[in-house]
């Protein structure tokens, strides 16, 4: 069994660009409508997958509504290096990098307002 988060986004192309730069994901697939706007994307995150979708003009992402609607937890090999890369890319840190009872971790929000938590482990 596996779980694949499917996040709704106002601007999939901008989100893909940011997630690949800040968090190290890679684009696997992109679908667009007749006008060339991305309506779906699939990103590789280590052995995992994250999908992005565009639900239409009436959609309001977590940044627009002012609070997170979900959180994603991702294990990475070197959480300290991952943190430095994310911060350099402009990630808004929502939980500082520190040792917790479940491991060394931090949390960051992407430009759409989705919250991501990264914990040391095998990526």
Automatic annotation (TrEMBL):
The protein's name in its UniProt record: VOC domain-containing protein
Where would I find the VOC domain in this sequence? Answer: 1-121
Checking PANTHER family in the record gives: BNAUNNG04460D PROTEIN-RELATED, VOC DOMAIN-CONTAINING PROTEIN
InterPro entries in the cross-refs: Glyas_Bleomycin-R_OHBP_Dase (IPR029068), Glyas_Fos-R_dOase_dom (IPR004360), VOC_core (IPR037523)
Q: Name one Pfam family in it.
A: Glyoxalase
The organism that produces this protein has a lineage beginning with: Bacteria, Bacillati, Actinomycetota, Actinomycetes, Pseudonocardiales
Q: Which domain of life is it from?
A: Bacteria
